[in-house]
Inverse folding.
């Protein structure tokens, strides 16, 4: 288990986009986008809520059309980097994600806060809109 | 894309996999024609046919629509509304 987790961290360090069955790492995403000319890092963590409708859940299961999802996320990273001059890292979980754990992590680093905030909003909205990932099941309490 | 251009590969995810009761179908390719025509001509696609307003489609991992022409070797995916994040 520990070995797997380490390997996913290593993968995240040298790629802007990661789909993984391992827990996400905001720290690794921040590390990926950090540069000496970046004065602002904005992060987003999407976490699993304890309720789905009126019922309590333990976890959500995610599935993706993996090749296309990676392609779409790389495209979103490219657009954000071009339009706001930022560095971007995205991680999304697959498989079971327990309540309170992150299913999505985004980090955007810019020279100043304005572009980092705007780019982060764009990236999160774009992921929701155009990346083929689905919630496919809930573990009920 | 699949290597053999004599076939078209269909992929189904999430609700579309449940609705179609499969994740993959490989059909022999006969002639280049719009996706909607392929779906109409094969009753196994009735679940998709009835939900064209609701589903998205991609061909070779790029967004397309039901009027996009499909050719041999294409990978067609039927995509329910996304719910990632």
């Amino acid at each position: 288990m520990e070995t797997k987790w380490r390997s996913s961290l290593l993968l995240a360090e040298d790629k802007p986009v990661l789909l993984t069955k391992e827990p996400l790492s905001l720290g690794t995403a921040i590390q990926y986008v950090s540069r000496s000319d970046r004065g602002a890092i904005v992060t987003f963590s999407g976490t699993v809520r304890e309720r789905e409708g009126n019922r309590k859940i333990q976890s959500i299961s995610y599935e993706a059309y993996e090749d296309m999802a990676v392609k779409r996320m790389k495209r979103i990273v490219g657009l954000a980097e071009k339009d706001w001059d930022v560095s971007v890292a995205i991680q999304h979980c697959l498989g079971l994600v327990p309540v309170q754990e992150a299913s999505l992590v985004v980090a955007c680093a810019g020279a100043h806060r304005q572009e980092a905030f705007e780019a982060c909003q764009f990236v999160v909205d774009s992921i929701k809109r155009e990346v083929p990932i689905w919630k496919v099941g809930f573990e009920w309490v | 894309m699949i290597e053999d251009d004599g076939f078209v590969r269909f992929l189904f995810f999430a609700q579309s996999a449940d609705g179609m009761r499969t994740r993959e179908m490989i059909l022999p390719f006969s002639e280049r024609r719009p996706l909607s025509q392929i779906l109409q001509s094969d009753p196994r696609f009735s679940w998709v046919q009835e939900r064209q307003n609701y589903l998205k489609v991609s061909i070779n991992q790029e967004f397309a629509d039901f009027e996009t022409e499909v050719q041999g070797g294409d990978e067609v995916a039927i995509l329910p509304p996304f719910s990632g994040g």
User: Anything to note?
Assistant: The radius of gyration of chain B is 12 Å.
